[in-house]
Amino acid sequence: MTKAQRKTHAQADISEHDGATAKGARHSCRCNVLASTRHPGFLFLLGLALSFGVACIGRTAEVETLKPTDAQIAEVRQILRETPLIDGHNDVPWQYRKRANDDLNGIDLAGDTRKLKPPMATDIPRLRAGGVGGQFWSVYVPSTLIGSVAVRAVLEQIDVVHQMMARYPETFELALTAADVERIHRAGKIASLIGMEGGHSIDNSLAILRTTYALGARYMTLTHIRNVDWADSANDEPKHHGLTPFGEDVVREMNRLGMLVDLSHVSAETMRAAIKVSQAPVIFSHSSARALCDDPRDVPDDVLKMVQANGGIVMATFLPQYLTERARAHAALHKAERDRLEKLYPDAPEKVKAAMENWDVANPLPHAAALNDVADHIDHIRKVAGIDHVGVGGDYDGFEGPPDGLEDVSCYPALLAELMRRGYTREDIKKVAGLNILRVMRQAEETAARLQTQGQK
Ligand SMILES: [Zn+2]
Description:
With 457 residues, the protein is an alpha/beta fold. The protein has a single domain, classed as Alpha-Beta Barrel (TIM Barrel), CATH 3.20.20.140. It has 17 helices and nine strands. The chain has helices at residues 3-13, 40-49, 61-64, 70-82, 92-100, 124-129, 148-167, 178-186, 206-214, 245-257, 268-277, 301-310, 325-344, 349-362, 371-385, 412-421, 426-454; strands at 85-90, 132-138, 172-174, 190-197, 217-221, 260-262, 283-287, 313-316, 390-392. Strands 1, 2, 3, 4, 5 and 6 form a six-stranded parallel β-sheet that branches. Helix 5 (92-100) crosses helix 7 (148-167), helix 11 (268-277) packs parallel to helix 12 and helix 13 packs antiparallel against helix 14 (349-362). The longest helix has 29 residues, at 426-454. Bound molecules: zinc ion.
C-alpha cells in the first residue's frame, strides 16, 4: 500500500473507530499538569512532588462538587507508587498512523500533545501526572481492512509500539508478563503492553496469531465493529450467534499461548460463548455496564456474573456513548444522519463530511458524560461481579469528546479519589487500579504453562 493509499484508509476509517464522531476536539482540559519542560526524568519527579493540588475538575457546577480533597489525591498518589495503575486500552499507535503515517517523528510524546491539531489526550508528561504505571497500547487497525492487508497493518502498528520503546527508553519498557509490569513499575517506568483490537488482524490464521504473540501482543479483542468469519461484533448483524468451531479454536490457542481473550466490542452471544470455552480468565479491555447504558457494546449483568465465575475483569471505559443514555441517543442520531447522507451522496464523501460537520455544529451535546458516570459504572460492575473483577480502560486517543473531569491521561487520580470518596478502601483502589488485571495476567500465564505441559493445541 502506498502512503497515499494508507492515508485514505485511515481517513475513511477513523469515523467508525469506536463510534467516534467528527465532533472535533471540543473539550478544554482543566487538569493541572505542568508540561513546559521536556525532560522526562524531571517530569517524573515533578509528578511525584505534585502530591497536592493536581486534580481534574469537570466544567459543570454539578461536577465541581465532586472535586476530591488534596488529602485524597495525595493518598491516591501514594497508592499508585505502591501499585501500578494499568489502563486496558490507549490508541496512541493509531494516532501515529493517522497523523504521521507511522513516522515516530510525527508526534513528540515528550512534549505537550494538547498543542496538536486536533489535540491529543496522551503524552509522557500527562501519563506521569496521571500516575500511569502500565498501559496496554492498542495496535488497532480498521475492520474494513481484510486479509493480508489487515495483517500487514497490524504488524506495522506493533512496530510502532516497539519504536515507541526505542525512542523513549527512559519512560517506556515492553512488558510481556505480570512480573515484567511490576519490575518495570518499580524501576519508575511505564510498563508497555500490546493489545490487538479485532480478529480480522489474524486473517483466520492461527500461525499469524502465534506470530503476533511472539512479537509481544498480550491480548486480542475477538472483533472490532464488524463480524469476523468466526465471531460476531456487537455492532453488526448477528451471523454466528457466538463462536464458530474455528472461533473456539482461536480462543483455545490464545489460552495455550497465554494471550488474553478480550471481549470488548463482541456481541453478548459471543461474550457468553467465549467465556464458556476459555480456560483462562477473560478481559474486557474497554467496556461499560449495559444496565446503566443500553448500548449493545456494553456488558449485560448476566455476563458480569459469568466474568465473576470465570475470574475475569471488566475494565471500565470512558467513551460517553457507552456511559450515558443521552450520549448513546445522540450518537445514534449522528449515525443515522451519516447513513442517510452516505446513501444520498454515495460518490461524494467530501459532501458527506461537510454536511456532518454542519450537523455537529447544529446538534451539540455538551456534558455528554462526566467522571461520576464512569464511577457509577465501576460501582455497578463491582456490585454485580465483585471488587476483584473491575479495572479501567480509558480508550484515550481512540475517540473525541471525553467525559467532564476525565479529559486526558492525567485524570486517573481524580477518578480513583472519587472512588475513595464513595467508600472504597485502599485495597479496593489498588485492585481497580492494577492488582486485578495483574492477577488475571498471572492466571492466564499459569493456564498457558499448564496447557503447554499437557501438550494441548
Ligand atoms: Zn475499541
